[in-house]
Design goal:
It contains six helices and six strands. The protein is an alpha+beta fold. Strands 1-2-3-4 form a four-stranded antiparallel beta sheet. Strands 5-6 form a two-stranded antiparallel ribbon. It is elongated, with a radius of gyration of 47 Å. It is an enzyme of class 2 (transferase). This is E2 ubiquitin-conjugating enzyme. It holds the Pfam family UQ_con. One of its GO terms (molecular function) is ubiquitin conjugating enzyme activity.
Length: 257
């Protein structure tokens, strides 16, 4: 396995340029990651193509560059388990671009695109996974079921931990109840003493029924003090006998005359 120390300077320069280009303009469904201190191992995440048994999956793979790269092709491995005719159980990738069709002028972009195309169109004739290759040729539905099962177990995209913009019905109801309670308390504090309640029942002619005012008794330090209404009533009762006495006295004076 090569490292930055034993790769030729011109190769390092070319790799740095190509990796920068892959980062700025990645191929569709492919995201590349690299260690700046070691260009000999290049990781990539490949999205499962739509319409295939690998859809909704994310598959991590790596390319390993040898000391004489680019004269010899890199070796490719899937790190995510996958059920595929051209990918061995240990993750090794079998594709002509990394074998007999390799050309030093081929770049990493071309290699990664070819590997993703394998997920769209496998080649069971050159299978590394014989079970998957045989199943693909004899019963595609069974092969697709196995591939989807592997994808769901090993390569399913992680779900977000928190949902944004979603408020549960119970939370909304609780907030509304709290708001209504706050409004009621504020109305009670701001209410004018003796004013009719806004919820007071109405008479048949549509007029509001006046609120009933009850007399209250406040106890002071020296004893009890009646409310103003009670006090006025007692003064009226005391004045009635006095007026009657005056009238009786006037009648007696008239009789004497």
């Amino acid at each position: 396995m090569a490292t930055n120390e034993n790769l030729p300077p011109n190769v390092i320069k070319q790799l740095a340029k190509e990796l920068k280009n892959l980062d700025e303009a990645p191929p569709e469904g492919i995201k590349v990651g690299v260690n700046d201190d070691n260009f000999s191992i290049i990781h990539a995440d490949i999205d499962g193509p739509a319409g295939t048994p690998y859809e909704n999956g994310v598959f991590r793979m790596k390319l390993i560059l040898s000391n004489d790269f680019p004269q010899s092709p890199p070796k490719g491995y899937f790190l995510t388990k996958i059920f595929h005719p051209n990918i061995a159980t240990n993750g090794e990738i079998c594709v002509n671009a990394l074998k007999k069709d390799w050309n030093p002028s081929l770049g990493l972009r071309h290699v990664l695109i070819v590997i993703r195309c394998l997920l769209i169109e496998p080649f069971p004739e050159s299978a590394l996974n014989e079970q998957a290759g045989k199943m693909l040729l004899e019963n595609y539905e069974e092969y697709a079921r196995h591939a989807r099962l592997y994808t769901g177990i090993h390569a399913l995209k992680p779900k977000p931990k928190f949902k944004t913009g979603v408020i549960s019905e119970s939370t909304t109801t609780r907030n509304v109840d709290q708001t209504n309670s706050s409004v009621k308390i504020a109305d009670q504090k701001n209410a004018v003493p003796g004013a009719a309640s806004p919820l007071a029942p109405k008479l048949e002619n549509g007029q509001d029924q006046p609120a009933v005012i009850t007399s209250t008794t406040e106890t002071g330090v020296g004893g009890s003090m009646t409310a103003p209404l009670t006090h006025k009533k007692e003064i009226g009762l005391a004045k009635a006998p006095s007026d009657k006495k005056k009238m009786d006295a006037r009648k007696k004076s008239l009789k004497r005359l």
